[in-house]
């Protein structure tokens, strides 16, 4: 395991690079950012990406990725790559259709297609595949739950998450024993909306020992609103002095609140997905670090609104992304209306730069 004394609240030290905190890693689930080539990610000054170990294991396969030199060579991302275990995706698919498989005490059985060979996913295989791919930050395999699951389901989730985390750690230590530059391994805190279970899970994971800790589970209540209380309990359950990772969370206003709770690493599909749907994020004029914490610091920009048809100025005159430095509002609207792929690329570049600028302000 990496020496935790090398890390601080302001920096995440990986074998690939040092990442200033807080940090936002956009989701490149299948090894690519939708509508965004690697050079646009680099220009946005985002310091890492998140990929999904399960999806990449399915296509093209960990062996293929290893054969071409690992994820960095395969995808051309020369930055820290965090791989999610894929446990949440498998849980979601099985919950949607129980015929797809089941979560057993020792493994996940998954078979989405009738007649297809079943996929058996264990904590050991989870670590093996992520190491084979060359990830810089590995996530332990956990057992997710839904907010409306009863206490017994949450209890089982915590028990299995702790047990599986220990198996992941053991396998990780065995396979990296002779490795000079080791990746990091993060554990995931489960417990649903039960504070005691969250604390129990966090304490047990701390005793096993990880390089960082992530929020596990679904962060929304039955009303669809974010459960800040649950996120706070999870943060309190994570040991101090380590990166606290708000997995899958990333609305700008949520990030501000979560940073104040102690979280320092974020990921989500929001900036890339919203860009494809013609919605951009724009800071209000004169926003700085203090203004961000007061709320109401940005607005949504709808690229195809008629009001932009003859506007010669940029989407945001204070932004230094490829869109704002080179093209007008009118031109972006034109690209979207004609279905040109450049519209998605330029809008994505802008949204990613917005998130990078937000991280910079929150780090001041």
Keywords:
three-stranded antiparallel beta sheet; eight-stranded parallel beta sheet; single chain; 15 strands; 364 residues
Task: Describe it.
The protein starts with 10 loop residues before the first strand and ends with a helix. The strands form four sheets. Strands 3-13-12-11-10-9-5-4 form an eight-stranded parallel β-sheet. Strands 6-7-8 form a three-stranded antiparallel β-sheet. A two-stranded antiparallel sheet has the order 1-2. The protein is 41% helix and 15% strand. With 364 residues, it is α/β, with parallel strands linked by helices. Helix 11 packs antiparallel against helix 15. The N terminus is likely disordered.
How are the SSEs placed, and which strands pair?
Blueprint: E1 11-13, E2 18-20, E3 23-24, H1 38-44, E4 49-52, H2 53-58, H3 62-67, H4 71-75, E5 81-84, H5 87-96, E6 101-103, E7 108-110, E8 119-121, H6 123-133, E9 137-139, H7 151-175, E10 184-189, H8 195-208, E11 212-215, H9 228-237, E12 243-246, H10 252-261, E13 265-266, H11 270-276, E14 279-283, H12 289-292, E15 298-302, H13 322-326, H14 329-337, H15 341-362
Parallel strand pairs: 3-13, 4-5, 5-9, 9-10, 10-11, 11-12, 12-13
Antiparallel strand pairs: 1-2, 6-7, 7-8, 14-15
Helix pairs in contact: 1-15, 6-7, 7-8, 8-9, 11-15, 14-15
């Amino acid at each position: 395991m990496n020496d935790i004394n090398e890390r601080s609240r302001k920096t995440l030290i990986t074998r690939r690079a040092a990442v200033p905190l807080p940090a936002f890693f956009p989701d490149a689930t299948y090894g690519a950012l939708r509508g965004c080539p690697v050079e646009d990610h680099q220009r946005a000054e985002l310091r890492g990406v998140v990929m999904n170990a399960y999806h990449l294991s399915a296509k093209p396969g960990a062996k293929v990725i290893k054969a071409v030199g690992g994820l960095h060579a395969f995808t051309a991302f020369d930055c820290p790559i965090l791989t999610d275990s894929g446990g949440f995706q498998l849980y979601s698919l099985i919950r949607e259709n129980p015929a797809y498989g089941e979560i057993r005490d020792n493994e996940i059985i998954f078979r989405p297609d009738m007649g297809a060979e079943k996929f058996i996913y264990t904590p050991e295989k989870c670590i093996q595949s992520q190491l084979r791919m060359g990830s810089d930050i590995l996530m332990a395999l956990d057992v997710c739950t839904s907010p409306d699951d009863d206490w017994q389901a949450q209890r089982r989730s915590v028990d299995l998450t702790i047990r599986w985390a220990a198996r992941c750690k053991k396998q990780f230590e065995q396979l990296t024993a002779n490795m000079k530059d080791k990746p990091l391994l993060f554990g995931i805190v489960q417990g649903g909306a039960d504070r005691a279970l969250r604390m129990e899970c966090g304490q047990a994971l701390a005793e096993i020992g990880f390089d960082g800790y992530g929020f596990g589970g679904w962060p929304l209540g039955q009303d669809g609103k974010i459960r800040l209380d649950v996120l706070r309990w999870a943060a309190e359950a994570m040991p101090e002095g380590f990166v606290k990772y708000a997995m899958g969370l990333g609305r700008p206003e949520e990030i501000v609140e979560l940073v104040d709770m102690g979280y320092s690493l974020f990921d989500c599909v929001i900036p890339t997905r919203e860009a494809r749907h013609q919605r951009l994020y724009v800071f209000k004029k004169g926003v700085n670090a203090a203004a961000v914490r007061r709320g109401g610091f940005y607005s949504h920009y709808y690229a195809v609104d008629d009001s932009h048809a003859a506007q010669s100025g940029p989407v945001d005159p204070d932004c230094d992304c490829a869109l704002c430095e080179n093209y007008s509002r009118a031109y972006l609207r034109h690209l979207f209306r004609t279905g040109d792929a450049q519209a998605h690329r330029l809008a994505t570049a802008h949204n990613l730069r917005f998130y990078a600028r937000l991280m910079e302000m929150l780090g001041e």
